[in-house]
Design brief:
Number of strands: 16
Mean pLDDT: 92
Structural class: alpha/beta
Order of helices and strands: HEEHEHEHEHHEHEHEEEEEHEHEEE
Oligomer: single chain
Helix content: 25-40%
């Protein structure tokens, strides 16, 4: 699809950028649907309606925006971050809703790769609506990366987050690790949790930190699924992750004994095959995808992170680097199947931000992610 020139029409670019910002409000609450934003301007170019997809099963972004615009939408322009859908599911087709409202032009950013919902642009054109795609496509795709990854690769999007000292240690030689990063960085992690469908840790992190993994301090957040990869089901019944704050999935080996967890409310168990020394990352991602999980926040520890990297299943890395030196202790990443510098996983740094005293670095692999 042709990328439109935002310099050529600042008003169009500004409206789409606003739609992208609106779409981001749905992060963490729309799965298995995408996040979508919509802005509607009247015939004179004045914004008369805005909307975003709030939750699966609810009205789509276009419907919210059309309701806000009312009769002012007639003869106007719709700016949508994703090609308007063309199918009837729990809601009606948005392409038809735009036609019925009398919209004259539609600009969308990203073509819909889902064969069940695509074709909206053709329906719009057939009805005489001037339609074009590609406006701020890269920006919109980045905001919808989780859903696009899930549709294209058949697995959830994985963001690996870690906090380390400047020399790459996540714990001291005596295993103490609280707190390497600052309170500001820890608060930022809760934002990442709120935007994810699932938060994943391994049994090592469970034993060392007894993490809770629920979101705190983010208003209106939908609690993510808490996932613990615990091969032999060594988790204690009083582990904080087994409380009622959020649902929990325990991933164990096929022969693991989980009888001590019988009757634990809100707990599901997934039995996975081995893949090398540990449980299959591919099988775990398949289970999560089948549950409607489209985005995963991988929080630790280094062994599990290494397994995800080895499986080619890390789509983004967010590292919080604290101005601290330890010189010894656990590294942020364990064995990832990389034995020579030629095989190193190369990353493109997309953002560096100061978070309190820490530095947050965001990077993405330069190689294409793997299908699972």
């Amino acid at each position: 699809m042709r990328q439109e020139d935002p310099v050529g029409n600042h008003a169009d670019a500004d409206a789409m950028r606003r739609a992208i910002a609106l779409a981001a409000r749905g992060l963490g609450s729309t799965s298995p649907n995408p996040v979508v934003g919509c802005v509607i301007t009247d015939a004179a170019g004045t914004v008369v309606g805005e909307g975003f997809h709030r939750q699966a099963g609810g009205p789509h972004a276009e419907v919210h925006a059309l309701r806000a615009a009312g009769d002012a939408a007639r003869g106007g322009t719709a700016y949508v971050t994703l090609e308007p859908c063309n199918h009837t599911g729990r809601t009606g087709p948005c392409a038809q809703a735009l036609i019925d409202a009398g919209i004259s032009r539609v600009h969308y950013a990203v073509s819909d790769p889902n064969p069940q919902a695509s074709g909206g642009s053709a329906t719009l054109r057939a009805a005489g609506v001037e339609t074009s795609g590609g406006l701020l496509e890269a920006e919109a795709a980045e905001g919808n990366a989780a859903w696009l990854t899930a549709v294209r690769l058949g697995r959830p999007y994985v963001l690996w987050k870690y906090a380390a000292t400047l020399d790459g240690r996540i714990a001291a030689a005596d295993t103490t690790s609280r707190w390497i990063s600052s309170a500001e960085s820890r608060a930022d992690v809760h934002r990442l949790r709120a935007e994810a469908d699932a938060v994943v840790v391994g049994s090592g992190t469970l034993r060392a930190d007894d993490p809770h993994l629920a979101v705190r301090g983010v208003e209106g957040a939908v609690q993510p699924l808490r996932v613990v990869v615990d091969t032999h089901a060594g988790i204690r019944r009083d582990a904080r992750v087994l409380d009622s704050a959020a649902p929990t999935l325990l991933a164990v080996a096929e022969d693991a004994d989980v009888r001590h967890l019988a009757g634990t409310e809100g707990l599901d168990v997934a039995r996975l095959p081995y893949d090398g020394p540990g449980l299959s990352v591919t099988a775990l991602l398949h289970v999560l995808h089948a549950r409607g999980v489209r985005s995963v926040l991988l929080e630790g520890g280094p062994t599990l992170a290494g397994a995800f990297v080895a499986a080619g299943a890390v789509d983004k890395v967010v590292g919080y680097l604290a101005p601290v030196l330890l010189g010894a202790g656990r590294a942020a990443l364990a064995d990832a199947g990389i034995t020579t510098i030629a095989d190193a996983l190369r990353l493109d740094i997309t953002e560096t931000v100061r978070i309190g005293p820490d530095l947050r670095i965001t990077a993405v692999p330069t190689t294409a992610p793997k299908e699972h």
